[in-house]
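Database export, one record per block. Field names are fixed; values are copied verbatim from the stored entry.
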Amino acid sequence: DVQLQAFGGGLVQAGDSLRLSCAASGFTFSDYGMGWFRQATGKEREFVAAVTWSGGSTYYSDSVKGRFTISRDNARNPLYLRMDSLKPEDTAVYFCARQSATGWGYDYWGQGTLVTVSS
C-alpha cells in the first residue's frame, strides 16, 4: 500500500526556519513527482510546492517562493520542505502528496504535520 507520512512540524516564531520531511513507502518513489500542500484552519487546502520525479524541476506558490525549498532524496525516499523566514500566515497543517502517474493531479496524500508560527 502507498503510504506517506509528513513529520517535522512544530511551534516556531516568525522568522524562524523549519524542515519538514515526508516518508514514502509502497511505491517506487523515484518514478513520481511529489508535492507539498497546506491547509489552514477554516481555509481550503492550497498548493505549496512540487518537485519532478528526478528533482530537476521545482515549482512554488507565489506565497512561499523564495522562502521555501522542496527537495527529495531518491536513494532514501524522503521528500523535504525547507521553510525559512516563516510568517504567521504560514501556520497550517502541511501534507505531502504523490503526483498521479498521468501527471495530472495528486492521487495519494499523507497524514499532515502541524506548523504553527507565532508572531
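Remark 1: DSSP finds no helices and eleven strands in the chain.
Remark 2: The two ends are 40 Å apart (CA to CA).
End of record.
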